[in-house]
Amino acid sequence: MGALLWLVAGLVLIGAEALSGDLILLMLAGGALSAAGVSAVFDPPLWVDGVVFAVVSLLLLFTVRPVAKRHMFSRPRLATNTEALVGQHGVVVSAITEDGGQVKFSGGVWSARAAHPGDRFDEGEAVTVLEIDGATAVVWKG
């Protein structure tokens, strides 16, 4: 009978974890399922089941949970929008100086300016986008 109670407790904790997503209840469910297994195989007194539940739950909380959280919640950052354009290579459409010009990259023509004062890029030269400043690509020879 004790094994059935621990099994039900484990399943309820797994269901509750689906709503919370913090991995604490899942670790407690692991402890409850371990206690259910011990209770089904050895049929010990209830306090032994409680000790198994506590020890396994604490081990899972302090060893497995930190690793699982690190893998679940820290994903590599994906560059989007203008961040994804930095580093793109383009071709100068109209001469680029520190005051302006145009460059074609990533399927479109962008207004552009040179990254360093005094730099000039003539039509047809290859440039690299250093940053996006508003709607202007800041480019350099690279």
UniProtKB/TrEMBL annotation:
Cross-referenced InterPro entries: Membrane_assoc_protease (IPR052165), NA-bd_OB-fold (IPR012340), NfeD-like_C (IPR002810)
Listed SUPFAM superfamilies: NfeD domain-like
One cellular-component annotation, GO: plasma membrane
Segments crossing the lipid bilayer: 50-68
Hydrolase among keywords: yes
Compartments reported by the entry: Membrane
GO MF terms held by the record: peptidase activity
Membrane topology: Multi-pass membrane protein
Protein known as: Membrane protein implicated in regulation of membrane protease activity
Keywords annotated in UniProt: Hydrolase, Membrane, Protease, Transmembrane, Transmembrane helix
BP-aspect Gene Ontology terms: proteolysis
Domain called NfeD-like C-terminal: residue spans: 83-141
